[in-house]
Design goal:
Blueprint: H1 2-11, H2 16-25, H3 27-47, E1 52-60, H4 64-80, H5 85-96, H6 99-111, H7 113-118, H8 125-131, E2 132-136, E3 142-149, H9 154-210, E4 214-217, E5 220-223, H10 224-248, H11 252-262, H12 267-282, H13 291-329, H14 333-369, E6 374-382, H15 391-417, H16 423-430, E7 434-436, H17 445-458, E8 467-471, H18 478-491, E9 496-498, H19 501-504, E10 509-516, H20 521-533, E11 538-545
Parallel strand pairs: 7-11, 8-9, 8-10, 10-11
Antiparallel strand pairs: 1-3, 1-6, 2-3, 4-5
Length: 547
């Protein structure tokens, strides 16, 4: 059962080499079939009725008013979490091709006197649906509506009815959408008014309880205590730097100079400056060792020490004051986070309420204007030249079918015959290496050289008892006769070729000869099985073209 299954799978195995062989074998029949198919297709195209086409164009949102409507509806849809204008265009396209437009169109056409005068026996809803094409021109909002039919007089009737039906539907649909939008926005307004009142109340109470205030600069929320805390921290850092600097100054003059900058209103500085003036004036009259001069210098030194202590104490007290301010401005992180959340919520709620009020007013105004979001820019028109049937397309299809269909038929025919056509196919069945590529003909010098190299070098033959070429089929086959002749010419009857498996069993090595286009797949399978049963060690195979 398994062997049968394997055999069937092998019979259905097809590779590109097989297809190439079959095309080469049946090339003339394939060309004849292709030519006949082309001729039949051409005649078929000539006999088909002419197809006419008509069209009209509409443009969506072409005017400023229509554009305003689209912007309003886009704003509404963005608040509702829906898509914007690109989807609106797709929606209009779907509406044009939907039964909501096409069914009323079909019913109205059947009632028209113009249609009845045409005396059309067969006209169904499917004739409209299948032959109507709607598409936007690339990069524009211009919608092309085309209708094809074999009856030229019917086309303008259909296009006019489609235009009228779409006009009525689109206005009704737009008015319904705007009414729904106003109701939705009114509901949201009421909800967000209550939210805003509640949010504002919570924010004020929280601000009062925690002594907080804020201001909004752009998208950033600034809380007063954080500003004060950062300001105090910066001033403390400056005071610490000044204290550190003054403590490091040992030079009296440098210290006094710094004191004039940090505390210019110090009373001690004024007294030091007064003594310095006295020293300058008295130095002209008295000697440096005079008692008055010594008293003045001592007084200045005492004042300098007082200034040093007083200025450092002043800066320390300033630092303590700023630290107290910073501590008073500090709030727990939870308090600040909650305060920021309340501010954002209040701001967001107010923003939504403003948007709802603005869009509601715009939609109400647009609804009062009652303008269509589209207009016809070309009237329904039928082209003077028919668009079909397309002789080139029909001829190509028939030619394509004729060409590949004939190849498939011949391929199936060859597969059912079960003939081995390529060396790769033989390799799959035998599961042996291909020792020699298939030659186009046996007198080929390259083939003879390769065959000689195979026998003398690759197998190391010393006498005829070590090697046999085993083939399948009739000894009278011309390819086998030619192959024997080639071997005899090359090796002077020293190489044996046989179709007898029992005789081949006497030799040390066997090379299978596969005749492509002649040997059957089942023959190869049986040979493989029998050689396996007899435990013959096969070197490989060579493939010959059947002449």
């Amino acid at each position: 059962m398994n062997s049968e299954k394997i055999g069937n799978e092998t019979e259905l195995d097809v590779d590109l080499g097989n297809i190439k062989k079959i095309i080469q074998k049946y090339i003339y029949l394939i060309l004849i079939s292709t030519s006949l198919s082309f001729f039949v297709g051409y005649l078929r195209g000539k006999t088909l009725p002419k197809i006419w086409q008509g069209q009209f164009q509409i443009v969506l949102n072409s005017s400023d008013k229509a554009s305003s409507t689209n912007n309003i509806e886009a704003s509404l849809k963005s608040l509702l979490g829906k898509s914007t204008s690109s989807t609106d265009l797709s929606t209009q396209l779907e509406i044009m091709n939907s039964p909501l437009v096409l069914i009323p169109t079909y019913e109205n056409i059947l009632k028209l006197n113009e249609f009845k005068k045409l005396d059309i026996k067969e006209f169904s809803f499917g004739d409209i649906k299948s032959n109507l094409k709607s598409k936007f021109k690339d990069g524009t909002t211009v919608l092309n509506i085309k209708f094809n039919n074999t009856n030229k007089e019917l086309i303008p009737i259909v296009l006019k009815e489609i235009s009228k039906t779409y006009q009525a539907f689109s206005y009704r649909d737009r008015q319904s959408n705007l009414d729904k939008g106003i109701k939705f926005l009114q509901t949201q307004q009421n909800i967000y008014k209550d939210k805003l009142m509640k949010s504002t109340k919570e924010l004020k109470e929280f601000s009062r309880e925690n002594n907080l205030s804020f201001e909004v600069i752009g998208d950033e929320i600034i809380i007063n205590t954080e500003v004060q805390r950062m300001k105090s921290a910066n001033e403390i850092r400056i005071l610490e730097q000044r204290i550190s600097l003054l403590k490091s100054l040992d030079n009296e003059e440098e210290f006094i100079y710094a004191a004039k900058i940090y505390n210019p209103n110090s009373q001690i500085l004024e007294e030091i400056q007064s003594i310095e003036k006295s020293l300058v004036v008295n130095s002209l009259v008295y000697a440096e060792t005079d008692k008055l001069m010594i008293l003045l210098r001592d007084a200045k030194a005492n004042l300098y020490e007082s200034l040093r202590r007083d200025l450092l104490a002043f800066l320390e007290s300033e630092k303590d004051a700023k630290e107290a301010e910073m501590i008073s401005a500090e709030r727990p992180i939870k308090v600040l986070s909650e305060y920021a959340r309340l501010i954002r919520e209040n701001k967001r709620t107010n923003s939504f309420l403003t948007k709802f009020e603005q869009i509601k007013n715009e939609i109400s105004l647009e609804l009062a204007k009652a303008k269509d979001p589209w207009e016809i820019i070309t009237n329904p028109k039928v082209f003077d030249t028919p668009i079909g049937p397309d002789l080139k397309k029909i001829s190509f299809i028939y030619t394509f079918v004729g060409f590949f269909g004939s190849i498939i038929l011949f391929l199936i025919y060859e597969i059912r015959k079960g003939i081995v056509l390529t060396s790769s196919e033989a390799k799959k069945i035998l599961n042996l290496p291909n020792l020699l590529d298939t030659p186009p003909y046996l007198d080929n010098n390259n083939f003879k050289e390769a065959l000689t190299l195979l026998i003398n070098s690759y197998l190391g033959i010393k006498n005829k008892e070590e090697l046999v070429f085993l083939f399948m089929g009739d000894e009278d086959n011309q390819t086998i006769i030619n192959f024997k002749s080639t071997l005899n010419n090359l090796f002077k009857n020293k190489i044996t070729i046989s179709n007898n498996l029992s005789e081949a069993n006497k030799y040390k090595s066997q090379i299978i000869v596969v005749i492509l286009g002649y040997n059957n797949k089942s023959e190869l399978q049986n040979l493989k099985f029998n050689m396996k049963m007899q435990r013959l060690d096969n070197t490989g195979f060579i493939a010959l073209n059947n002449n």
